[in-house]
Amino acid sequence: KRIVIFASGSGSNAENIISFFREKPEVAVVAVLTNKSSAKVLERCDRLGVPAFYFNKPAFKDSDAVVNILQGLNADLIVLAGFLWKIPSNLINAFPNKIINIHPALLPKYGGKGMYGERVHQAIKENKETETGITIHYVNENYDEGAIIFQAKTTVEPSDDAEVIAQKVHQLEYEHFPKVIEKVLS
Ligand code: GRF
To answer: Is the CB of 178 under 6 A from ligand 1?
Structure first.
């Protein structure tokens, strides 16, 4: 089975997923795609020996260039791991029920356009939530709205700042995301 990861930022989840499947004979991350030429995920791909492709907005939104790359790669599953653009319908239609995303909160709360990274954890803190977590879901045309596949929770203490909450959520991501991907592929 062939996984393609989309990432816009640091790529710690991408690295975790690549490493997890390195030991599994049937599944491999065949490429990482990014919309940011400066994304740290590209350094991780160099170090890990995983092909990486950069695309700009017109290529992504107004052409089939990215769809063609994915079909050329024979992708069985597209995994969004810190990818910040909405997925255009040509990509959704080319890979029905084959695009999944991880969101660092318990959707449907704290989701939608603009709710990403530290902003999510800041909002959790400001609203004095006592728990937060991760949501892994299928991707449709709208931000963070597809069918939910998996959720995991962690407690939030009053003394936790956004950084501490982010660390707790990252731990859940690293623990669960690869295993959920494996299950989706089986
Ligand atoms: C993660 O918190 C993920 O839930 C969200 O974006 C962040 C990506 O972090 N979608 P990284 O780039 O994998 O380190």
So the answer is: no
ipTM, 2 dp: 0.94
Cα distance between residue 99 and residue 140, in whole Å: 8
Residue 103 is among the residues annotated as catalytic for this protein: yes
Exposure on the CB side of residue 167, measured as CA atoms within 13 A:
4
Angle between helices 41-48 and 12-22 (to 10 degrees): 20
Number of H helices and E strands in the chain, helices first, is: 7, 7
**Average confidence (pLDDT) over 159-185:** 98
* This model's pTM is above 0.95: yes
- Site to substitute for ligand 1 among 8, 34, 173, most atoms within 8 A of C-beta: 173
Sheet holding 148-155, edge to edge: 52-54, 28-34, 2-6, 77-80, 99-103, 131-138, 148-155
For ligand 1, whether the C-beta of 10 sits within 6 Å is yes
Which atom of ligand 1 approaches the CA of 10 most closely? 12
